[in-house]
Amino acid sequence: MKRIVGTALAVVCAVCLPASRATARNIEEILQEKKLITPAEAKEAKSADPAKQVPAAPETPAAAPALSEKETASLTKTILDQVPQWVNKITPFGDVRVRNESFWQSGSPDRNRDRFRLRVGATVKVNDQTQVGFRLASGKASDPISNNQTFSDTFGFKSVNIAEAYLKFAPTTLIGLSRPIFTVMGGKFYNPMYAPASAPNMLQFDRDLAPEGGFENIKAIESKDGVIRGLGLNLSQFVFSENSASSEGALFGFQGLANLAFGNVLANVALGDSYYSKASWIGKARNSNSDLNITNNVTLSDGEIVGGKPVDPSKLGPNGDGKDANGKPITITGFVSDYNIVDLAGDVTVPTPWWDFPVNVFGDFAYNTAAKTSEDVGWQIGARVGRYADRNDMFLTYEYEQLQTDAVLSAFGDSDFGRSGGTNTKGHVIQAGYVVLKNLSLLSTLYIDKPIDSVPGRNGNTDYRWQVDAVAKF
Prior knowledge:
By secondary structure, this protein is mostly beta strands. It has helices spanning 2-16, 27-33, 39-48, 69-81, 85-88, 280-285; strands at residues 90-105, 108-127, 130-138, 149-150, 160-169, 182-188, 212-222, 228-241, 249-262, 265-277, 298-300, 305-306, 332-335, 340-350, 359-368, 377-386, 394-403, 425-437, 440-451, 463-473. The chain is built from six helices and 20 strands. Strand 1 and strand 2 form a beta hairpin. Helix 1 (2-16) runs parallel beside helix 3 (39-48) and helix 2 (27-33) packs antiparallel against helix 3.
């Protein structure tokens, strides 16, 4: 009986007690020590429920051997081979910018506003010689020089417009070339003409401007060695107005561009001309589109000439109600000047002992040879120290600019220089940037400017405009 009871007790304890209670010694060993069971009974109890025995510590699996470079490449190729071919032809891109902007000017109300800009698009490689692209952007469709949306309108939904839709063709093997010597584009696209990239703003055009029409580029020289690294010609035919009763209103341009290297010093020099056919159509368009910024000298329907400030026909006239002395609405009948703008621009990059802080000096000069006033010149000059590409990069830029009233077409000019953008402005631009993380950066830009010429209806005091941006690219 003692044997039966001892064996039963050992089996019950082995089955019912938690494994954590038998980590030091098995229960059979304890009972055997107290002479409640024999060694044979302990062996029998151990075999009664093997699952309740304390398992041996598992062996740590051996680490998988590291793949060689050849094996990694092979695995990558295998994975990519499983991706549909059409996916590999698409390259998406985009950016989001959030901005706080403040204005201060004696004699005008202070202002603070918040804005955002969204741009998203893709390029598609149709074949080795053909590409199509598109981009959607925020902003008002009637404003050609801004993709910004102001935080306003009682949380109303914001507009998204077609900012780019183009086809690009660069033939090579089709005509027996080893590299593309010329490129042809058609559609709507951001301005492909050269302008100093480190300048906070362009002299003749706004960076958000997306012309429509045709563009051709011819690359006579493209080299990694020697003094002349590149030599090319840009040609443009941008249509800004179509009229079934007459020819189109268009901007015809050409620009010769040279890329040079003097040891480690790199330089770009461009000389071009922009001729506007039927430029006055742009001025007349302001009669129905209040988002066009016209500051050039214009002739009104009542015979008056105004300019040097944003022209709003609805606020002109003897009583400021947009009507002439006979009670008829005042309209813009055309520009005082024609527009044929000769432009000379360039920049030079000089390395320093501190690799992250190269110095870039830039300049741009524009002269309207078709102006009928003496207000026909614009220019900018400046310098940037630093880089703006990788994490922890930073830079500081200073620029001085003067832009006379009829030097360039204000409707397509920079929208940030001056309180309301446009022409008849001179002043300083100070910009600093810092790359927080890859594809995430901060920008701070301060404009300090005032009118060149005093005109009735425009505040002549110094204007301060400060923009703080957070920009994420993807």
